[in-house]
Amino acid sequence: MSALRSYRLLVTWQARRMKMFLPLGIMVQALFALGIVAGYPLLFPTIDKTTILYLATGGPVIALVTMGLVAVPQMVSAAKTEGTLAYMRTLPIPRVVYLLADMTVWLTVVLPGVALAVVIGSIRFGLDLQISPLVIPAVILVALTATSIGYALASLVPPMVANMASQVLVVFILMFSPLNFPADRLPGWLAAIHSVLPIQAMGEVMRGTLASNSFPITVGAFALLGVWCVASFAATSVVLTRRA
Amino acid sequence: MLLEVEELTKRYKRGATRANDSVNLTVDAGQVYGLLGHNGAGKTTLVNQIVGLIRPDAGSIWIDGRDVVADPGFARRACSIQPQSQVPIDGLTPRQAIETLGRLRGGRPDSVRERSARLVEALDLGEWLDVDGARLSGGVKRLVSFCMAAVEPGKVVILDEPTNDVDPVRRRLLWAQVRSLADEGAAVLLVTHNVIEAERSVDRLAILDHGRVLTEGTTAELKAGIADELRLELVLDPETGRIETPQFTGPHTVVGNRIVATVPARMAGEAATWARDLRRAGRIEEFSLAPATLEDAYVALVGSTSATATPTAVSSEEEIDVRAA
């Protein structure tokens, strides 16, 4: 039970540390998700139902993915620079517990935005989304995978490089990942890359579970994401435990 | 022995100079053990190996009979540490930070609360107890970080430069708390370059230089080499030019308008007469002649072995640090 107690204490610790940032972070994430759902349609003079569905379900995924791959590396780099990470590593806490506590706080920041984007999207476009209960494991899987990768990235490379990499990732995720549009619009080589990267699978599991009447819930996407999740979480735990 | 370090060697890159070179030391329960040395002498590298942040290249570390190189998890349970860098507590109040650390180290809520209150009172931190960490001064943060290490102390308590930024009055309160940690049974490893403070506070000490232990023992043992020497300190009048020191003085250091030199005890009378004459002539403002300190022993040791470092004594009213120039 001591792991559970450590988890609880660390979540409180991190939430307090970030208490100035939390409301702001929640707002920014909500705005971000909203912007994609409400702002992207402005790009198209006419808009069909499939496009609308892609936008309404893509917004929440992009919010989750950018949180993990962009905001997390930046915050972990800051924690590394200011010494929090090294200090936490001297405490008698399992690394996995520390990681999970951090992820819990980040999930709290991103979830309201995700939910808001779904609600606003369905109202704005008059969608009748059939949300599957599988959306809960899907959200957790996507968030865990994205934050683990972001965490590993920030732990492995110097802060400056991590910040640059996260900027590049933003462009890649927003413009060149099949989240707001079907994968068949990508050139063949990029589609091939995306078939092994986790981003497309993140989009598929979220789309399938948020609009189960329009998109299939594919076992393959869940499986691929599961592999990425376990691998990146394990890699991050190893990085955190590693002794120089 | 609670903490045993044997032949510990660490180099950060292949072929690079050794940050730690066959370091041996032992610290017993109830002992305050000082680890002294210049910046870059290898003190923090040693500490980071003990708590399992860095893996040694060779040698072993035992805590309470357990090999912590093989089991760094045990090291983290057995050691509580106040790191040299400030622990970031922005967003938390000292009360929250200290109590959370106590709980994270396995303390029961009521005993953690009680012990935290005792530490806060002993260090006179009450007025900041519920102030956000972002608004605390460096010295107060340092004391809070000490409390975080002491609230639920490990068998080994490691304090890395605990008095940095702390005001003179609270420094004394802090040293009293360091002592009581040892009295309660902890082995306290105190890392510092503040030689004067260390002399008053430690039971034993080691002097580290370029990764090696130059010498190890009680303060009296370390001062044995200069037992027959006195410390002559002159404060020059700003108008005075150079002063030729007489033959009987040993090597001297000059910082600003102060000159510190050693004098053989048998020459005390001559030294006093010489200094008094200088003051009468208005060439110095004041002088003192006193038993040589640990700092003099330190300068004699480290100064003579450092080919590249020229030791200089920097003095203020409260502290005298010795640093590599």
What does this entry look like structurally?
- The complex is a heterodimer of chains A (about 240) and B (about 325).
- By secondary structure, chain A is mainly alpha-helical.
- Chain A has one domain.
- Chain A is built from ten helices and no strands.
- In chain A, helix 3 packs antiparallel against helix 7.
- The longest helix of chain A is centred in the N-terminal third of the chain and has 34 residues.
- Chain A is globular and about 55 Å long.
- Helix content of chain B is about 35%, strand content about 30%.
- In chain B, strand 4 and strand 5 form a beta hairpin.
- Chain B has about 325 residues and is an alpha/beta fold.
- In chain B, the strands form four sheets. Chain B has a six-stranded mixed sheet, sandwiched between helices.
- Chain B is globular.
- Chain B folds into two domains: about 220 residues, P-loop containing nucleotide triphosphate hydrolases (Rossmann fold, 3-Layer(aba) Sandwich); about 100 residues, Alpha-Beta Plaits, CATH 3.30.70.
- The C terminus of chain B is likely disordered.
- Chain B is built from ten helices and 16 strands.
- Classes of the chains: A mainly alpha (about 240), B alpha/beta (about 325).
- At the A-B interface, helix 1 and helix 4 of A face helix 2 and helix 3 of B.
In short:
The complex is a heterodimer of chains A (about 240) and B (about 325). Chain A has about 240 residues and is an all-alpha fold.
